Amino acid sequence: MREFRRLWRALESAAVPAGVEAEWRERLGPDLERIRSFLKPEQRLAEAFPCPSPGGDHCPRRVVVHAPDDIVAVCGNSPAECPPLRLQRRDLVVYHLDVPAWLGDVAAALRKRNILEQLDAAAGGAILPLGTLSRRGMRLPVVLMLQPVAALNEVCLGLRQKLGGDGLVVLLDQPATSFPASARVAVLDIPDNASGDLELWRALDILDPRYRERRPTDPKAIFDEVTLEFSTVPGQRHLVRINGHEFGGFQKSDLKFLRLLYLATVRAFDKDVEEGGWTKMVKLQVADDKAKGLEKLREELRKHDHPQLNEAERAALVKTSPDRNSTVRLALDPHHIVFDASLADFRFVGEQQTTTKSGERRRTPGAAVLEKNLAHSRAVSKKLVDGIRKLGLTQLPTAPRG
């Protein structure tokens, strides 16, 4: 959304969305390439050309055609403030922006990124319909306010009635209004991100305010606002970040990290936000004692603090299906799972526990038992790596070192 906001503000400053390519480049800089396919040539040629230092009484430069191959842009000020500029005919082609086509493309991209259904409705004016959000048993039309609107509350209530559904989501710059719960209208600011994620979970929380209280115990509830990122410091430790905060768990256990990574991979590649992401527990290589193996995963989530999630919420990130079919999933939005490029150099780190700081193997009775357990862990970890790669996370190496 950051790119769209920047483009829209630049376009708003223009009296008319038309000009020669030099004007478009001056106005948009490198963002010109983002809209180039929506610039349509007009039949007329420009009679003026942009100045490098505009501001004089006779700016911009006047175009003088001496011959088809002798075209010059000259400064009309006296004395001249800009040098004459030789041009070619193509420099004078005027392009206008096909605004409806461009906005339609923007809406389509946002609809795809945010899993919205097509919304066939003309809201009119500075209101861009994006789509319909179907979540938590609600169908919510989502619209984007492109410009400030007079009598905003009345406009929103009118849209709420016109578009139907179970409520209305309105996105706009710097919202300064809110509605009573009975109005079923959620007004959100436009997120300042580069991904196109509208963070529509904020609207769901406004319209369903008790959802967060229910989700630790609701087996099918999703933690919409949580982002999980997986990375590694090759040969040293594994890293899990929750909403950008480095989490204390999973760093030295290959098995726990890979089991969580397996769940994340299943979740990331199944785009059905509410119903998808389930996998058989046996796939996590906990066949001997499924309940115990899964509880170890949850215990790792419980025992390390996080500033935004309490202990019960952290444990509930891994949910067991209520259908008694031995399936489990990571209760996140599939778009909120990030696999860092460092995973391409993933290495096992578990055996570091059997070596001294100098790199020598410890030779104690306890170390021998630990080494045996780690050998078993290594074999299971390799199976998990194979399974994760088969799910689609092929950046993970086929035979990790360590």
For the largest beta-sheet, the strand count, sense and barrel status come to: 4 strands, antiparallel
Computed over alpha carbons, the radius of gyration is 29 Å
Helical run tally: 11
Low-confidence stretches: none
| Average pLDDT score | 87
Order of helices and strands: HEHHEEEEEEHEEHEEHHEEEHEHHEEEH
Shape: elongated
Termini distance?
A: 41 Å
Count of structural domains: 3
Structural class: alpha+beta
Fraction of helical residues: 25-40%
Number of strands: 18
DSSP strand (E) fraction? 15-25%
Strand order across the biggest sheet?
3-4-5-6
Q: How are the secondary structure elements laid out?
A:
Layout: H1 2-12, E1 18-19, H2 21-28, H3 32-35, E2 39-45, E3 48-49, E4 61-67, E5 70-74, E6 85-87, E7 93-97, H4 99-113, E8 127-135, E9 138-145, H5 152-163, E10 168-172, E11 185-189, H6 201-207, H7 211-214, E12 228-233, E13 237-242, E14 245-246, H8 254-269, E15 279-280, H9 290-302, H10 311-315, E16 318-320, E17 327-330, E18 337-339, H11 365-391
Parallel strand pairs: 9-10, 10-11, 12-18
Antiparallel strand pairs: 1-7, 2-7, 3-4, 4-5, 5-6, 8-9, 12-13, 13-14, 15-17, 16-17
Helix pairs in contact: 8-11
